[in-house]
Design brief:
It is built from 14 helices and no strands. It is elongated and about 95 Å long. It has 3 domains: 96 residues, Alpha Horseshoe (Serine Threonine Protein Phosphatase 5, Tetratricopeptide repeat), CATH 1.25.40; 71 residues, no CATH class; 102 residues, Serine Threonine Protein Phosphatase 5, Tetratricopeptide repeat (Alpha Horseshoe), CATH 1.25.40.
Length: 306
């Protein structure tokens, strides 16, 4: 029973290989089914693949042989040797691919990365490099569409306005570029760049102005938590500028300014006895966030007269 099951399993492997386009020696296919239970059959096939330069095919054949003779030291050594050769070759190809990217030869880089994946289908470096190439290609394509649409827009070829008040292709592509930038992790600078470009063309797009303001507010919050108060103030000013005089939304930023000022006022109180100089710094920043805070003004006057 064990022998029969073994032969069935071996035959299934052969069918899969044939279906996937892998080359199988014709003698092995025509021979008796019992030949597949002999590891020498697979070793011979592996050696043939290796002579032909097909390292991945050779490695596969050796791994099949190992299932038939798990303790065979020659098979183990051959597998280890091939894995090492494949690793060295893929590293060289990835290095060449990266160099091609730096030189602007993206087609060559893509070919090298694909060759790497042919040798090692799950190579993380090659997969990541391909992802970056695809992302870059998509971004460039979008930039070309935006530029073309802007030229058409300036030439006077406009479509009917939509609910946002804009109907031309430039608006659509510009919004898409913003969405693409916002969907990528750690791309806050790129998102802000796209938002600024969009607002320069469509200064009355309140939704995008609001998004830019919220993005700057998020940066302000991170800077405040990191105690980078100068940056926090700068981000708040940019958030206010993006709103272009929208009083209701400006009130929300003023409220946050006051909260930051209150937090710094409390920090100053806590350090006023042990570190009066540090307390003074906290209060000076607190006053920048909320210039009308009387408590902070009195604390600064008091500590300066000590």
């Amino acid at each position: 029973m064990k022998v029969t099951a073994y032969l069935i399993a071996s035959f299934s492997v052969t069918v899969i290989l044939l279906g996937s386009g892998c080359a199988i020696d014709s003698k092995r296919v025509k021979g008796s089914s019992g030949v597949y239970g002999d590891p020498k059959t697979w070793i011979a096939a592996a050696e043939t693949h290796e002579k032909q330069g097909d390292l991945q095919g050779a490695l596969f054949e050796y791994r099949v042989a190992r299932t038939l003779a798990k303790q065979d030291p020659v098979i183990k050594k051959s597998i280890k040797r091939l894995e090492s050769q494949i690793s060295k070759r893929t590293k060289k190809m990835i290095a060449r691919g990266n160099k091609a990217v730096r030189q602007g030869k993206t087609s060559k880089a893509r070919r090298l990365y694909l060759e790497t994946l042919g040798l090692e289908p799950n190579n993380k470096d090659a997969l990541e490099a391909m992802r970056r190439l695809d992302e870059k290609s998509s971004r460039r394509s979008m930039e070309r569409k935006v530029a073309l649409s802007q030229r058409n827009y300036k030439s006077g070829r406009k479509k009917a306005k939509n609910n946002n008040g804009y109907g031309d292709e430039t608006y659509t592509y510009s919004r898409q570029a913003i969405l693409q930038a916002g969907s990528r992790p750690a791309s806050i600078d790129e998102l802000i760049k796209e938002l600024k470009k969009h607002i320069a063309i469509y200064p009355n797009d309140l939704k995008m102005r609001s998004l830019l303001s919220k993005t700057r507010m998020g940066q302000a919050e991170k800077s405040y938590q990191a105690e980078n108060y100068s940056d926090t103030l700068s981000y708040l000013e940019q958030a206010e500028s993006a709103l272009n005089g929208d009083r209701k939304k400006l009130q929300a930023i003023t409220k946050i300014r006051n909260e930051y000022g209150k937090g710094l006022y409390i920090k100053g109180l806590r350090s006023s006895r042990s570190e009066p100089k540090q307390a003074l710094k906290y209060w000076e920043y607190a006053l920048k966030f909320n210039p009308d805070d009387k408590r902070t003004q009195l604390r600064i006057q008091k500590i300066n007269t000590m």
